[in-house]
């Protein structure tokens, strides 16, 4: 399963800076003027797994260990009136339609040197501008589809319901569609049907020294958003600028630096940085699981231990095999369930003990 996640928000709020911080390298242009990003940037981001992949690769004696990735997409900023062609318009939203989740970046830092498209920092008002543009973009997308003669049956019925909801200011995910109704309009890629993670980009000082207050403020903002349903959506706090500065340092350099600036519990802060935490948050919100496959034959024939992403729901071994590869499904003969931790412990300690010189 390929998981794509789009960074959406007003121009100049820190999307590209956050994109680079999460990618841990400078890919996107991040400059202090609106619409610096025109063409979308895409990069794979590994999903952290407590090193399970590497431990399993060791057990399987694989030469290669491939982690699972989500694909992070950085697009141009959206402004008030984009649906009528303001700013760069909303042409680039076609890219977002192909994504599974929206990361909505909201500026919450006060740096007076950074230009704000509307002249003042107001996280709730800014987020609502973007939410309204997403809603209007969906409305015109739905209406264009309804005009087509090929729009019939279930699809037409559900779209009429969605159109009514959108006209009343409800995002498609709040209309109460059943999963089969959602399935019938899946190909449209409605933006307001996608789960949203609101990311409040705060001042670095607040981020480093006062996380609890920053989180409480972010929660208060999220609760004021008309279309934020915290049952489905989620929120987090980042400092794009600070995290981007850290991203070029090795783990050890990060630890030394965080200690030197007196960051409360530097090591824990490293775990909280967006490049580690965001992929896990996306995994949670989309309800995904990681599955590992490794060589069951001699290392000469198959050398890779690989991580796969699948939707998290209980399925049979045969269905799971089918999700990974048709050939694996055809060849399934037997399944044995072992706790991964037991397997790893046996391999790292049991074997060493067995092989230890007398
Ligand atoms: N002070 C401060 N500046 C930031 C932060 N994040 C981004 N910026 C600055 O804001 C400007 C716009 O950032 P950019 O990532 O290009 O915004 P985008 O248009 O949303 O992609 C750049 O000059 C960044 O250095 C932040 O957390 N704090
Ligand atoms: Mg940008």
From TrEMBL:
The keyword DNA damage is annotated on this UniProt entry: no
Keywords: ATP-binding, Metal-binding, Nucleotide-binding
Matching SUPFAM superfamilies: P-loop containing nucleoside triphosphate hydrolases, TGS-like
Location of the OBG-type G domain: 3-258
GO MF annotations in UniProt: ATP binding; metal ion binding
Domain of life: Eukaryota
Pfam families: MMR_HSR1
InterPro entries reported for this sequence: ATPase_YchF/OLA1 (IPR004396), Beta-grasp_dom_sf (IPR012675), G_OBG (IPR031167), GTP-bd (IPR006073), P-loop_NTPase (IPR027417), TGS-like (IPR012676), TGS-like_dom_sf (IPR023192)
Protein name, entry field: OBG-type G domain-containing protein
């Amino acid at each position: 399963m390929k998981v794509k996640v789009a960074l959406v928000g007003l121009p100049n709020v820190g999307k590209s800076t956050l994109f680079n911080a999460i990618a841990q390298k400078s890919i996107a242009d991040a400059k202090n003027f609106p619409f610096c990003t025109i063409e979308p940037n895409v990069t794979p981001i590994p999903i952290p797994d407590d090193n399970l992949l590497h431990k399993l690769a060791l057990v399987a004696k694989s030469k290669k260990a491939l982690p699972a990735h989500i694909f992070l997409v950085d697009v141009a900023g959206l402004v008030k009136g984009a649906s009528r062609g303001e700013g760069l318009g909303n042409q680039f939203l076609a890219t977002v339609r192909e994504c599974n989740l929206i990361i909505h970046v909201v500026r919450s830092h006060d740096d007076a040197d950074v230009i704000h498209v509307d002249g003042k920092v107001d996280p709730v008002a800014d987020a609502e501008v973007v939410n309204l543009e997403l809603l209007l973009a969906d409305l015109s997308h739905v209406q264009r589809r309804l005009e087509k003669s090929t729009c019939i049956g279930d699809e037409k019925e559900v779209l009429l319901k969605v159109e009514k909801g959108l006209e009343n200011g409800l995002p498609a995910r709040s209309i109460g569609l059943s999963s089969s109704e959602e399935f019938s309009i899946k190909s449209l890629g409605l933006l307001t049907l996608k789960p949203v993670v609101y990311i409040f980009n705060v001042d670095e000082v607040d981020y480093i020294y006062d996380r609890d207050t920053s989180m409480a403020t972010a929660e208060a903002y999220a609760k004021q958003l008309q279309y934020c349903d915290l049952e489905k959506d989620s929120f987090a706090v980042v400092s794009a600028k600070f995290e981007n500065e850290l991203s070029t340092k090795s783990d050890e350099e990060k630890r030394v630096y965080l200690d030197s600036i007196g960051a409360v519990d530097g090591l824990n802060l490293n775990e909280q940085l967006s490049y580690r935490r965001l992929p896990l948050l996306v995994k949670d919100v989309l309800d995904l699981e990681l599955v590992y496959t490794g060589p069951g034959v001699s290392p000469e024939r198959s050398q890779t231990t690989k991580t796969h992403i699948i939707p998290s729901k209980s399925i049979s071994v045969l269905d799971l095999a089918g999700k990974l590869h048709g050939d694996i499904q055809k060849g399934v003969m037997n399944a044995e369930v072992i706790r991964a931790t037991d397997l790893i412990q046996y391999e790292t300690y049991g074997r060493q003990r067995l092989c230890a010189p007398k």
